[in-house]
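#struct-help
A.M.: can someone run this one for me? Single chain, 299 residues.
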Amino acid sequence: MSNWLAIKREMQGSDGFVAWVRQQIIPSGEQLALEARRKVIDTRWDGVEPQKEAFRETTVDEFFCDLLDTEYEIYLQYEEKCIAEAIRLALNNAQVLEKYPHTAQMLQMALQMIENQTEESTQRLSELASLLRPFYMLFEQSLSQGRCTRAGGSPQTHFEYLLRLLGYSGEFETQTVLNGKVDFLFPNREAWKRDRQRCIIVSVKRSLRERYKQVFEELGITGGLSVYLLVTETLEEAKKDLAHSKIGKLKEQNIYLVVRDAVKQNLFPSESRVFGFSDFLLKELPLRRQIWKSLIEEH
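D.P.: on it. C-alpha cells below:
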C-alpha cells in the first residue's frame, strides 16, 4: 500500500483523523443550534426571545431561515478552525502518533522542513506545499462529507424550537416510530392509534437530493394521511434540486411539500400542494390543528 493510500485510510471515515479533529473542535448539533439561536435573537430581536404574537407572514419565514443559515455559517467557521488547528493538535497528542502513524509522520516531516535552515525559503515552501497537498485535499474531502451529515439534523432542531414558540408544545412528538421513524407526529402516538387520518406527519430534510430515493419508503404509511415534507434548501439550491418531476412524484404519493417562501414564490407560485414556510406555519398548521385537537379533547 502506497503512503498516500495509508494516509487516506487514516484520515477519512468515522474513526479517521479528520473525524477526531472535528470532535475536538466542533460542538454538538444542539450546541450549534443554541449558538445560532442566540445570535439571531440578539440581531433580530434585541436579545429578547420572540413571543407567539410577534410572528407574522414575513417574520416567521425570515426567523426560521435565519436560524438555518446562521447555524450553517457558524459551522463553517468551526470547520476553518479545524483546518487551522489540525496540525497543532496532531503534533501535540500522543493518541494521534499511535493511532494515525502515517499522518503523524508526514506532519513531523513538514515540521522538519520548516526548521531546516540549510535550504532557501522558496525551496522549503515548495517542498512543504508538495508534502502537505494530500493532507489538505483529504482533509477537505472528509469535512465536506461530514458537513452533509451534520446539516441533516439541524432543520429538525430549529423547526421544533419554532413550533414551541408558536404555542404547539404538547401537541407533537418527535422521532416517533410508526411503520418507520417519523420526525414529527401531531398530536401524539395515542391519537394516531385512535384515528390516524386526523393526525399529520411532518418529515424534515435538508434537501430532496439527500436520501431522495428513501423518502417514499420512510413515508410509506401515507394511504390518505396528511403528510408534509419540509425541505429547507435555499432558492439557488432548490433551482437545481426541486425539479417539477420530483414534485409530481410527491403528489402521486399524496405528500405536500413545504419550502422557504422564496422557493414557493419563485418556483411554485401556483402549485397548491407546495406551501411556503409562512403559509404552512400560520395558516395550514392551525387548520390541521382544529382536526387533531379533537383527538386530544376526546382522550
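A.M.: thanks! The chain has two domains: 3-154, 173-298.
D.P.: also worth noting: The longest strand covers residues 181-186.
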